[in-house]
Amino acid sequence: MPSGTPETDRPFVVVGVSGGIAAYKSVELVRRLRERDYHVAVITTPAAERFVSPFTLGTLASEPVARDLFSEAGGPIPHTRLGQLADLIVIAPATADVIGRYAAGLGDDLLTTTLLAARGTVLVCPAMHTEMWENAAVQENLATLRRRGVLVLEPASGALAGGDEGPGRLPEVEVIVERVASLVEGPGHPLSGRRLLITAGGTREPIDPVRVLTNRSSGRQGHALAEVAAQWGAEVTLVTASELPAPTGWGHVTTVRAETAAAMREEVLARLDDADALIMAAAVADFTVRPAATKLKRRDGVPTLHLEPTADILAEAVARRRPGQVLVGFAAESSDALRNGREKFVRKGVDLLVLNDVSRPGAGFETATNEVVLIDATGEEPVSLRSKAEVARAVLGRVASLLSRGDE
Ligand code: CTP
Questions:
Q1: Is beta strand 212-213 parallel, antiparallel or unpaired with respect to 205-206?
Q2: Which regions of the chain are under pLDDT 50?
Q3: Does 345 sit in the ligand 1 pocket, CB within 6 Å?
Q4: Are the C-beta atoms of residues 318 and 268 closer than 8 Å to each other?
Q5: 356 catalytic, yes or no?
Q6: CA 387, CA 393: separation in Å to the nearest integer?
Q7: Which of 205, 286, 346, 354 to mutate to test the pocket of ligand 1 (most atoms within 8 A of CB)?
Q8: Is there a smaller number of Cβ atoms within 10 Å at the N or the C end of the chain?
Q9: Residue 107 burial (10 A CB sphere; 0-12, 13-18, 19+)
Q10: Which domains does the chain have, with CATH numbers?
Q11: Spatial distance between the Cα atoms of 295 and 291, rounded to a whole number of angstroms
């Protein structure tokens, strides 16, 4: 399978091991992840090495254990290499100390610097004594991480080191492997072989050679949709107005750049008939302006911009939809979100509407997280605040079931 990572075409998983007694379970975790044919790299903290040998972990992993920010072994910049390549970083066990340093944004060892450089999903698996787990500082640090889109696997309850009992145990390796697998593979490749056309980003309408009319969309949600859909086996074409890098990682995405609403319309309509589903996550300008050939000069006074409506790409797609094709619209609302969203779902004639209340903290534009309501003919499903990759999974789960309904 083609992939953006230059080094492997398999899912790239980094296992971060910090210093708690549960570190012994990381040996089994690495072995099980390798069995699933992932590329597994391991980072240990110095404290982890008091509990488990880097030699053992490195023998089981796909490459020697990365232990030190300044060692020659991992190349000159091991943290950026691992942070950029990892489709997923799983920290198991995550001690209160690592959680605290990660939440504070510190980069004082190889593990925390890698986390700072991470581009993929991060799954934290805390393990500690119950008193520490219940400590307000630890809980607040975890809340901070969750708010930033980091996933936290709740610890299990049971026997702890020293004969104590209570919540704080690292979950069984089986449970961690399942969670990792569903994050990197998706549940059983539900979009296998489907052709998905996804748009992203805010279009930019030129006013003159220097200035543009645009909006606050970053393109992150659309890019996350493309990345996850590819992980779930779809053939993805991403038409993007965003300057974010083309999605990389596990799975293949064809990325097409389209800056203006008109360019996006052209690129989408040219590919629409081949697509099983269209997901219009882009914030397409509703108005454009005929651009001046040369820069408008201040000395010429305040210009009047004559705005003209753009074509509604989604409406055109609905008008020429082929049977079984699934069409998904996004709605960014800043007031009366649910009422407007319901009305827009009916008016747009789409199969699914992803409603974004952009007035809510952590949701919508320019954030790493999102909170949406999925509206389709069967009803509404609120998707609470989580990373854009997790929101993408919820949306794509719906798309997968709408597509399979069309097959019946
Ligand atoms: N959209 C589109 N072409 C446009 C504008 C919007 O395809 N020229 C798509 C967006 O990608 C989104 C959906 O239409 O999926 C809804 O966009 P929105 O701007 O919320 O809809 P409008 O009908 O413009 O509603 P509003 O009255 O709120 O502006």
A1: antiparallel
A2: 1-4
A3: no
A4: no
A5: no
A6: 10
A7: 286
A8: C
A9: middle
A10: 12-184 (3.40.50.1950), 195-407 (3.40.50.10300)
A11: 9
